[in-house]
What does this fold into?
Amino acid sequence: MTRGIALILLATFAFAIMNALAKELSTFHPLQVVFFRAFGTFVFIFPYMLYRKVSIVGKHPKMLALRAIVGVVSLATFFMAVQRIPLGSAISIRYLGPIFGAMLAAYFLKEKITLWQWLSFAVGFSGVIVLKGFDLRIDYYSLGLLIISAIFVGMVFVLIRYLSTREHYLTIINYFMVVSISVSLCFMANWRMPVGIEWWSVIGIGLFGLVGQVTMTQAFRTEETSALAPFKYMELVWALFLGFFFFKETYEWLPFLGILLIIAGMLLNVFGKNKKAISA
It folds into this structure.
C-alpha cells in the first residue's frame, strides 16, 4: 500500500466519523453543526498560516469567497439531510457531485465529457431513482436537499480546480472556514449550548473534519488523482458500518442495489476521465 492510498483511506474514515457525528448532533440547528465543523478546523489552520506566513487574503478574494459560499451551501444542506435520513443513503446521493462537476467543467472550463462519463451519469442517476423508490425513509425534501448539496459540490470541484494553481491550499481552506463561521453566526437565535457528552461530538466533528481535510490534501499531493479517486468511495463503506452499529440503520437488497449503482456510476466516471487523459 502506498503512502497516498493510506492517507486517502485515513481521510475517508475521518470524514465518515465527522458525518456520523453530524447525525449524532441532529437536535442542533444544522448551521450550528456547520459552525462546530468549521471552528474546529479554523483554530488550528489560522495560527499555522500565520506561522508559515501563508497569505490570508489571497490573490483572488472574490473567487475564494465564492468557493467558500458554495461550500457552505453544500455542507449545510448535507447536514440537514443527514439529520433526517440514513447516513449511507445521504452520502450515496451526495456522490452525484462529480457528475455535476463534470457538467459544469464542460461549460465553464471547456473540458470534454467522454462517452464513458455520460454512461456513468446515467448509471449514477438510475441508482438514485432505485434508492429513492425502494427506501421509504428518504422523503422528497431530503432528496431535494441532497441534490442541491451535490450540485454545489460540483461547483466546489470546478472552483477548486480553478484556484488550485493560483492560491495556496490553506488559503482556500481558511476562506471556507471563515465564511462557514460567519454564515453560521447569523443563525445564533436558533442555537443552544451543548450539554454533557454532546461536547465530545462537538469537539470530535471539528477534529475529525480537520484530520480528513489535511490527510485528503496530502494524499492528492503525494499521488496522482486517478490512482486515489476510487478509494474516495471507501467513505461510504465506513458510513454504512457506522450507520449500522451506532444508528441501527439497515438496508433491504433493492435500496442497497441503488447504492451500488451510484458507486458504479462514480467509478465509471473515474474510468472515463482516465481514458480521456490517456488518449490526450
User: Anything to note?
Assistant: The longest helix spans residues 253-279.
